[in-house]
Design goal:
The model has no long low-confidence stretch (mean pLDDT 86). The protein is mainly α. It contains 8 helices and no strands. α1 (12-30) runs antiparallel to α4 (66-87), α3 packs across α5 (89-110) and α5 packs across α6 (120-130). It has a single domain, classed as Rhomboid-like (Rhomboid-like fold, Up-down Bundle), CATH 1.20.1540.10.
């Protein structure tokens, strides 16, 4: 007897994240960007305002338009399920939250006149985190070195030479956070396997 194919809810965090980003973009489109500016974009505002701290995390959910959203969500959907299966939903929530806060604080201090929104920092964290999937104790995967060289190197180059609307620093910060988490998580898990 043939088994019937069914759709599975395989990556709860990834699917929820993508769904929320989609809903936020729809809301932004309907409000002509007002909701995005109010709740899903981080910029220099009073540290006494609760919205400043809310936006420090929620800016990764907002996107400047459909092309921006689709570009980021394609990577999240490609990398996220594999990472969520390996590390679990809580770890990915932590990686995304740390990336959001770190990029927000850096942007607040270094670029006080520039607003920031989008999940590209999270995307770069996932890219670098995914390069550690074949990690063994005492080794640094060549894939990690190449991914870091290509992706982070490209962001540094573009940050110095290209004048556009893309926040290369949030990409770099996300990549560093993803690499850090990848190394720490895999050293711990390989240590557990050796015992």
């Amino acid at each position: 007897m043939k088994k019937r194919l069914r759709i599975t809810f395989n990556a709860p965090f990834v699917l929820a994240f993508v769904g929320i980003c989609f809903a936020v973009t729809v809301l932004g489109t309907l409000t002509n960007g007002k909701s995005t500016g109010l709740l899903f974009m981080t910029y220099h505002s009073s540290l006494l305002s609760p919205l400043t701290w809310l936006r420090a995390f929620t800016h990764v959910l907002g996107h400047s338009g459909w092309a921006h959203l689709i570009g980021n969500m394609s990577y999240i959907l490609l990398l996220g399920p594999m990472l969520e299966e390996k590390y679990g939903s809580k770890t990915l929530v932590t990686v995304a939250a740390v990336t959001a806060l770190a990029t927000s604080i850096f942007n607040y201090i270094v670029f006080p006149n520039i607003a920031l929104c989008g999940a590209s920092g999270v995307v770069f964290a996932f890219i670098l985190l995914s390069s550690f999937t074949g990690f063994r104790e005492g080794e640094i995967p060549l894939t990690f070195i190449l991914v870091a060289a290509f992706y982070i190197g490209q962001q540094i180059f573009e940050g110095l030479t290209v004048s556009d609307n893309i926040s290369n620093t949030s990409h770099i910060i996300g990549g560093v956070i993803g690499g850090f988490f990848g190394y720490i998580l895999n050293v711990r898990s390989s240590g557990r396997r050796l015992r």
